[in-house]
Design brief:
The chain folds into two domains: about 10-160, no CATH class; about 170-350, SMI1/KNR4-like. It has helices spanning about 45-65, 105-115, 150, 155-160, 165-180, 190-205, 215-225, 230-235, 250-265, 270-275, 335-340, 345-350; strands at about 10-15, 30, 70-75, 85-90, 95-100, 125-130, 135-140, 290-300, 300-305, 320-325, 330-335. The protein has about 350 residues and is an alpha+beta fold. The strands form two sheets. Strands 1, 2, 3, 4, 5, 6 and 7 form a seven-stranded mixed sheet that branches. It comes from Flavobacterium rakeshii. InterPro entries: Knr4/Smi1-like_dom, Knr4/Smi1-like_sf, KNR4/SMI1_regulator.
């Protein structure tokens, strides 16, 4: 740490020993809040202004410790003008306990932020700030709500550290979990797919673009995903490169949407991804997996996809619906040909404005 005023004795190392540390074992380093700006924001403070204060406070503390702050915990006193203690989760995976030297502007902002929490002055709060997070949790008081920050301090800090502190372990945990369910694509009935597609086209009679050469996209998908671009979708894309008024994705869009959802999967922990299980045990009770390959746009961030990590009663290559409006995937059909054969029924159902799982 470059700041000569902060000795190494103040820092808490993020390791298993952290779990044993109690509140009374900790030395809190004093950090000033006098450099806070934004007095004009207090004139009509709303959510946007509070978020600007959060960003400013993190910046002020970051400048003093000369390191990026990944997360800030701030424990409030029972009185607005009392002593505020906190913990800075730093980029180097160290935790710096702090005692805030309050300024008039700091106390004024605390009054704004905590006004709804201070009807009971025997209750304290834990503020949690990151670059994209802001929350208030009640602690202390006679009910002892979420009192772990006081009586299990080190363990609480360990359990609530930024995901970046534990990203290797968390990624491994997800990989081990999903590997048990991945099943490679089996044989594909190309005739059944073409027959079902032709019947669908006769029914709707839309204009469509002729098929394109997608080999480069297929190769890019395989290099990134670690498994082959689905053969069934390749067969479908041999028949078109976009259909008017029917939102089948073309190869480029399949790759693009898959990458977007893979980013969400990578960013979330397994615990965050887990949702209620499918009673039929066909689709994993997850928000998304990298083995769901979207191929049809249901709009508003929702898609139909081929699933290659089914639950124990599912089949590899089954068709599911998933997306922003769904907590978890929903089974639609056993395979692509079956989906195309019942396309109108499935599409009308999924296009219903009340569809929300």
């Amino acid at each position: 740490m470059k700041n000569s005023g902060i000795t190494t004795s103040y820092f808490l190392e993020y390791n298993n020993n952290l779990k044993k540390i109690q509140w009374n074992d900790i030395a809190f380093f004093p950090l000033e809040s006098y450099a806070l700006s934004g007095k004009q924001l207090l004139e009509k403070p709303g959510n946007a202004e509070v978020l600007q204060f959060r960003d400013n406070l993190i910046q002020v503390f970051s400048m003093q410790v000369e390191q990026k702050i990944e997360r800030l915990f701030l424990v409030t006193p029972k009185e607005i003008s009392g002593e505020y203690y906190g913990f800075l989760f730093l980029q180097n995976k160290q935790i710096l306990p702090i005692k805030v030297i309050g300024s008039p502007l700091f106390y004024k902002w605390m009054e704004v932020i905590l006004r709804d929490d201070y009807e009971d002055r025997d209750m304290q709060s834990l503020l949690q700030f990151t670059s994209n997070e802001y929350s208030i949790i009640s602690i202390g008081g006679p009910i002892k709500i979420n009192n772990r920050i006081f009586n299990e301090t080190g363990k609480y800090l360990f359990d609530n550290a930024p995901k970046k502190y534990n990203e290797v372990k968390l990624a491994k945990e997800k990989a081990n979990y999903i590997a048990k369910y991945y099943q490679p694509e089996g044989d594909v009935d190309t005739t059944a797919i073409k027959t079902a597609f032709d019947q669908m086209m006769k029914q709707f009679n839309p204009a469509f673009a002729p098929p394109a050469d997608n080999e480069e996209i297929y190769d890019e998908f395989e290099k990134t995903a670690g498994f082959a671009f689905p053969k069934a979708l390749k067969e479908l894309l041999k028949l078109h490169d976009g259909i008017e008024d029917i939102p089948f994705l073309i190869a480029e869009d399949i790759l693009d949407e898959w990458l977007k959802w893979k980013t969400i999967y990578d960013d979330w922990t397994l615990e965050e991804l887990k949702k209620s299980s499918d009673p039929d045990k066909k689709v994993l009770g997850l928000y998304v997996t990298p083995y769901w390959v979207p191929f049809f746009d249901l709009e508003d961030g929702n898609f139909m996809a081929m699933d290659f990590a089914p639950d124990k009663n599912g089949t590899p290559g089954q068709i599911i619906a998933f997306g922003a409006n769904n907590e978890k995937g929903e089974w639609i059909a056993d395979n692509l040909a079956a989906f195309l054969n019942t396309f109108k029924v499935n599409y009308d159902y999924l296009d219903d404005e009340d569809y929300d799982n």
